[in-house]
Amino acid sequence: MVGSASAVGMEEASIQLNHLQVDQHPETADNGASAATKKKKKKKSVAPVVGTVNIEPKERDQEVVATSISLQDDEEEVQGDGAETTKKKKKKNKSKKKKEQLEQTDPPSVPVVDLFSSGDFPEGEIQQYKDDNLWRTTSEEKREVERLEKPIYNSLRQAAEVHRQVRKYIRSILKPGMLMIDLCETLENTVRKLISENGLQAGIAFPTGCSLNWVAAHWTPNSGDKTVLQYDDVMKLDFGTHIDGHIVDCAFTVAFNPMFNPLLEASKEATNTGIKEAGIDVRLCDVGAAIQEVMESYEVEINGKTYQVKSIRNLNGHSIGSYQIHAGKSVPIVKGGEQTKMEEGEFYAIETFGSTGKGYVREDLECSHYMKNFDVGHIPLRLPRAKQLLGTINKHFSTLAFCRRYLDRLGETKYLMALKNLSDAGIVQPYPPLCDVKGSYVSQFEHTILLRPTCKEVVSRGDDY
Q1: What are the pLDDT digits (tens) for 36-56?
Q2: Residue 4's closest CA among 62, 75, 70?
Q3: CB 278 within 8 A of CB 348
Q4: Secondary structure string (H, E, C) spanning 260-290
Q5: This prediction's pTM
Q6: Other CB atoms closer than 10 Å to residue 125's CB: what's the count?
Q7: Scanning 40, 285, 387, 394, which has its CA 20 to 30 A from the CA of 166?
Q8: CA separation for the pair 357, 441 (Å, rounded)
Q9: Which residues are catalytic?
């Protein structure tokens, strides 16, 4: 419409120009104007005659032309709108096709990297720091630091997305009567698929912990174990994923019997409290005190007897480093811990353990977890079998934790003596199961958090917890 209006204006200007030309040069006018010029003897002005005879028909013609132009424009716009609508429909159809191609299967088998073609993975839950650190939110300097660290954040988010999808699937198939070894191998094989396992660049960060009842941590079935998951069991499912050594450590508790719900709620809320209290320049002991206060405000009635939920005082959260699940700092879950402060850029696993027992664990049962010491130097070995086993560990695990099932999977056999030799030499550290008193129950929840320069990101947060 705008184009047709301007065309009319141009024609009007042209008519006015012709009018002036007729006044100045009567001999150049059209036949009607020439006839008017011949009648000069009557002393009538030429200009009005020209205007009367020639301009009005031209204006009428121009209006017709303008109207037809505007109608053509309208038709073109309508056609254009139709074309655009068709294009939009095609685009929608294409995007639907893409979406259908990129949806996760059931059971999950599509690598997470294929579900996010942009290469950017979902950000975790963002929490702001407390008042004394609020200035970080708008600091351009801190934002620039984050921009430089984005590749690391993205790797961590990829590992977290794998964790979320795997645990969602495992929750859907969990039921009493499952063999614990089948449960662990199903979970681990799903991780391998979704993370596109690739040596030390991407894979499982540590063995799947599926500790039952009074066993708080570090238990996974060895080959041949026939333990079956029962309706009255309280199982801690603790597993990790990593991309380029950037580890997501995250855990939750499963109980089929609803009488254990308050116990699970206690550790879940205590973990959320620890996350809320954590921050740059926060003292670790203050986080522990806040966790204990929330944990021990819960009670649980089990088979007619009421228990106050206790924080297990010798278990902690911890800082996480590259290829290092425990990077040196411990986050207590009771008051009176270290005065050490959290720092900008650090990764932490905030985990809490609530118990109906003594609230204290000790090493017990058959060992399944092992890990090469992070700072170990060259130590000469006499046994050729120990040297060969160390080569396997260096190649496939480096300083990430592993279990005996993982060695079996790689084809290693008759390795227990060599493994003991590596442990005695201080190269490999065994991590036996950690147990409270028999007959008690322990629950656990855990998330990995990142203390970014501008905010706190709960990387492993999901819809489930």
Answers
A1: 343 333 444 444 433 433 444
A2: 70
A3: yes
A4: HHHHHHHHHHHHHHHHHHCCCCCEHHHHHHH
A5: 0.79
A6: 14
A7: 394
A8: 7
A9: 238, 249, 318, 326, 351, 446
